[in-house]
């Protein structure tokens, strides 16, 4: 999270430096159950009056989720106030605000994302950009450490040791999928059998076939990834 926060806001959360004293950052990952309950109630408006009660009871860590969201929103607002002044670092917030500031100079109108949209996108980036990468790498290492994967592990080690003679040679340019095809295949397979998220946000169908079934246009649906990625005719 320290790395992705620096990429988004040009300002690290300093979780490792401070020993993760901001416990609400970790609290977000404890709020998954509460978020699912909230999504369920939103799908059934008649049950929405129960949402404040669930929040007060902190079911599934909803309060932690709210504090985390408020923290990210404050970070985004602070970064937006610095603008795109000369010498500012290139970060995600800069690119999200650049279009509307350029449009304002040319047309005296602000276009592009508004403040709320930037805050919400910052929340998505901060969450998906940190936990998903960590989870995927844990899956890769776990499966390669299994006795049944001993041959695959030896192949990965051979590929890495053949490609690099020293740690200094390991750079972003030298670690592409074409230069390390076997390692890339292991990562791709780990992402299939060990998806980093249990589900994805719902999508609105344009009227297409999904998994052999026609989904009418305008229907909102989503897939449970652990089940979907193990379907034989898909894989």
TrEMBL record:
Domain of life according to the entry: Eukaryota
Cited InterPro entries: Cyt_P450, Cyt_P450_sf, Cytochrome_P450_monoxygenase
TM annotation in the entry: 35-57
Record's keyword terms, sorted: Heme, Iron, Membrane, Metal-binding, Transmembrane, Transmembrane helix
GO molecular function list: heme binding; iron ion binding; monooxygenase activity; oxidoreductase activity, acting on paired donors, with incorporation or reduction of molecular oxygen
Cofactor(s) the protein needs: heme
Gene3D superfamilies: Cytochrome P450
Similarity comment text for this entry: Belongs to the cytochrome P450 family.
The protein, known as: Uncharacterized protein
